[in-house]
């Protein structure tokens, strides 16, 4: 299970880095307006409209892969079994209240103290 979590974490990291790179390579909507009036060069590797479609589809694929890995890691992270070694402080406190004290041990009163009420 640890190998699967490490693999999903690596895929998530690579998809996040690829998504960042793809978003930075895309042109803004204002860049096309300036290129149409001749102020800038609109040539690109994939053509005038092909670059936006290729880059936007690649970004969507990376985003969906990132989301799937995030959900998978959240599911696998919630499936950990609580053992006595890895339990939290709150779990130990609930366990101590549920288990009665051993024989010979002094029981701590949980309810109101009747001696405190008679001091008036």
TrEMBL record:
<feature type="region of interest" description="Disordered">
    <location>
        <begin position="101"/>
        <end position="120"/>
    </location>
</feature>
<keyword id="KW-0653">Protein transport</keyword>
<dbReference type="GO" id="GO:0065002">
    <property type="term" value="P:intracellular protein transmembrane transport"/>
</dbReference>
<keyword id="KW-0813">Transport</keyword>
<dbReference type="Pfam" id="PF03840">
    <property type="entry name" value="SecG"/>
</dbReference>
<protein>
    <recommendedName>
        <fullName>Protein-export membrane protein SecG</fullName>
    </recommendedName>
</protein>
<dbReference type="GO" id="GO:0005886">
    <property type="term" value="C:plasma membrane"/>
</dbReference>
<dbReference type="GO" id="GO:0043952">
    <property type="term" value="P:protein transport by the Sec complex"/>
</dbReference>
<keyword id="KW-1133">Transmembrane helix</keyword>
<comment type="function">
    <text>Involved in protein export. Participates in an early event of protein translocation.</text>
</comment>
<comment type="similarity">
    <text>Belongs to the SecG family.</text>
</comment>
<keyword id="KW-1003">Cell membrane</keyword>
<dbReference type="InterPro" id="IPR004692">
    <property type="entry name" value="SecG"/>
</dbReference>
<keyword id="KW-0811">Translocation</keyword>
<dbReference type="GO" id="GO:0015450">
    <property type="term" value="F:protein-transporting ATPase activity"/>
</dbReference>
<dbReference type="GO" id="GO:0009306">
    <property type="term" value="P:protein secretion"/>
</dbReference>
<feature type="transmembrane region" description="Helical">
    <location>
        <begin position="54"/>
        <end position="76"/>
    </location>
</feature>
<keyword id="KW-0472">Membrane</keyword>
<keyword id="KW-0812">Transmembrane</keyword>
């Amino acid at each position: 299970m640890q190998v699967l979590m490490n693999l999903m974490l690596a895929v998530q990291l690579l998809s996040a880095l690829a998504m960042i790179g793809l978003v930075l390579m895309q042109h803004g909507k204002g860049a096309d307006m300036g290129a149409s009036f001749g102020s800038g060069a609109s040539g690109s590797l994939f053509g005038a409209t092909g670059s936006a479609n290729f880059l936007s589809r690649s970004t969507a694929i990376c985003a969906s892969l990132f989301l799937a890995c995030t959900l998978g890691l959240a599911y696998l992270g919630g499936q950990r079994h609580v053992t006595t070694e890895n339990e939290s402080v709150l779990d130990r406190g609930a366990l101590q209240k549920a288990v009665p004290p051993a024989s010979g041990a002094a029981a701590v009163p949980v309810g109101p103290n009747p001696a405190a009420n008679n001091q008036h």
